[in-house]
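A reminder from the course coordinator: this example appears on the midterm review sheet, so study it carefully.

Given structure:
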C-alpha cells in the first residue's frame, strides 16, 4: 500500500508543515480545528460543504454546528478515498467548501478539484487526520489546498490523547483565524489538561497490542460516564447539537506534548511503511483486494485496510486471540451506532461506501507492533478471513452502474 521508503528525510519535511506557528493553530480535537477553519471562512446557515460519505461522524457534525449542510459523495473503492469527479458534480451555488480526506494515510486523488475550486471561489480543505507525514511529489499533505486539519487522538499517527491542529495556506483566511482563535476559543480547564497528560503518558509507556480490546472497552466506558475526556461523548453521536466545552484550544501547558510526539515521528513512519510493505507482500499471494496508490505519493499507513466478507466474525476472532484489528470505518459515518441521518446522511446515497464499510477490517502499523506480532496478525487473517478479491470489487461497481 505504501512506497518502500527507508529514508526519513522526506517524512521530516512533510511533518514540518504542522509545526509552523505562523500557519498553524492548536485545538482540543481535530474536529474542532475543522470547525474553526470553516467558521473563519464565514460558512454558516444556507451554505454547503461537499465531503466523502466515508468518514467519522464528527466531521459532518462540525459542519452542522455552524448551521451549514454536509453534502456527501461516494468513494473510489479502488483507493478507499473520495471520488474527485463525483465531488466536482456536487459543487453548486451554495457550495462554500470541499473536503478531501486521505484515508488511512493513502494520499487522495484530488483530480481537477484544486483548479475547479479556485475558479469557483470554493475553499478546499484537507482532512489529514490519518496522514500526517504523507505527501504528493514534493508537496506535503496539508499544503495541497487552502487549509487542512489533523488529529492527535489516541489512534492517530501521532498521539497526545486528544488534540488537533488547523493549518491555513491562505493569507486572508489566516488573518481571520487569528481573530476567531482569540475571541471564540478558550483554554481548556487545568484539570482536563492534566488528566489528558497523565493518560497519554500512561498510554505511551505501557500500551501493548495484546491489551487493545480491554483498554478500548475501558476507555469508552470511562469516557461515556465522564470519568475521562473521551474522544466522543454519547451526545455527539445522537444529534447535531454542539456539546458543551467544544470550542477549546489545546492548552498552553500541553503544547510541549505536541512537539514531543512530532520529533520522533519520521522514524516511526518508516516503521509503519515497512509493516505495510510486509502486509502487502503476504496478502498479494492470496489475490485479495489491496488499495491502489497514486504515483509519486508518499503514504504513511495509519492502518492497513483489507476487505473481508465475514467482518463481524473476524472481530470475534480478534477479541478471543487478542489481536489488534480495527473496524473503522464500519459505516459511511463511523461509528455505525451514530444517528447518521441527524448529520445529513441518507441511506443509499453512497452505495460504494456502504458496501465497503460492511466489509472493512484494518491491521495496526504503530511502533509497538513487532515483526512477530505482524506475522501473527496477517497469518490469522489469511487463515480465517473470507477475503474480498479485486474481481468482487469490480463486480460490485458494475452492479451499481447497471
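Designed residues:
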Amino acid at each position: 500500500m505504501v512506497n518502500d521508503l527507508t529514508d526519513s528525510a522526506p517524512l521530516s519535511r512533510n511533518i514540518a508543515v504542522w509545526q509552523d506557528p505562523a500557519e498553524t493553530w492548536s485545538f482540543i480535537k481535530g474536529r474542532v480545528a475543522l470547525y474553526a477553519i470553516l467558521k473563519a471562512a464565514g460558512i454558516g446557515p444556507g451554505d454547503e460543504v461537499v465531503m466523502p460519505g466515508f468518514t467519522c461522524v464528527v466531521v459532518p457534525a462540525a459542519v452542522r454546528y455552524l448551521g451549514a449542510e454536509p453534502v456527501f459523495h461516494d468513494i473510489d473503492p479502488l483507493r478507499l478515498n473520495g471520488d474527485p469527479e463525483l465531488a466536482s458534480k456536487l459543487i453548486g451555488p451554495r457550495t462554500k467548501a470541499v473536503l478531501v480526506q486521505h484515508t488511512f494515510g493513502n494520499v487522495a486523488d484530488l483530480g481537477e478539484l484544486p483548479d475547479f475550486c479556485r475558479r469557483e471561489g470554493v475553499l478546499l480543505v484537507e482532512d489529514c487526520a490519518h496522514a500526517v507525514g504523507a505527501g504528493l511529489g514534493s508537496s506535503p499533505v496539508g499544503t495541497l489546498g487552502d487549509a487542512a486539519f489533523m488529529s492527535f487522538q489516541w489512534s492517530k499517527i501521532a498521539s497526545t490523547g486528544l488534540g488537533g491542529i488547523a493549518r491555513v495556506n491562505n493569507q486572508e483566511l489566516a488573518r481571520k483565524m487569528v481573530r476567531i482563535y482569540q475571541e471564540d476559543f478558550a483554554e481548556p480547564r487545568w484539570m482536563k489538561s492534566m488528566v489528558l497528560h497523565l493518560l497519554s503518558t500512561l498510554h505511551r509507556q505501557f500500551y501493548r497490542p495484546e491489551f487493545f480490546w480491554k483498554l478500548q472497552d475501558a476507555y469508552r466506558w470511562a469516557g461515556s460516564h465522564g470519568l475521562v475526556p473521551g474522544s466522543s461523548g454519547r451526545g455527539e453521536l445522537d444529534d447535531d447539537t454542539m456539546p458543551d466545552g467544544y470550542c477549546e484550544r489545546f492548552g498552553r501547558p500541553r503544547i510541549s506534548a505536541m512537539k514531543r510526539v512530532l520529533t520522533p515521528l519520521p522514524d516511526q513512519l518508516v516503521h509503519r511503511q515497512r509493516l505495510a510493505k510486509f502486509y502487502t507482500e503476504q496478502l498479494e499471494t492470496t489475490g485479495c483486494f489491496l488499495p491502489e496508490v497514486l504515483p509519486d505519493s508518499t503514504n504513511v499507513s495509519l492502518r492497513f485496510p483489507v476487505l473481508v466478507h465475514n467482518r463481524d466474525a473476524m472481530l470475534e476472532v480478534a477479541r478471543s486471540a487478542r489481536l489488534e484489528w480495527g473496524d473503522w470505518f464500519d459505516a459511511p459515518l463511523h461509528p455505525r451506532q451514530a444517528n447518521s441521518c441527524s448529520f445529513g446522511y441518507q441511506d443509499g446515497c453512497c452505495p460504494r461506501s456502504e458496501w465497503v464499510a460492511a466489509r472493512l477490517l484494518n491491521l495496526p502499523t504503530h511502533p509497538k507492533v513487532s515483526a512477530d506480532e505482524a506475522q501473527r496478525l496477517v497469518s490469522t487473517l489469511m487463515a480465517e478471513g473470507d477475503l474480498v478479491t479485486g474481481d468482487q470489487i469490480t463486480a460490485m461497481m458494475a452492479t451499481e452502474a447497471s
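Confidence is low (pLDDT under 50) at residues 1-5. The first strand starts at residue 24 and ends at 27.
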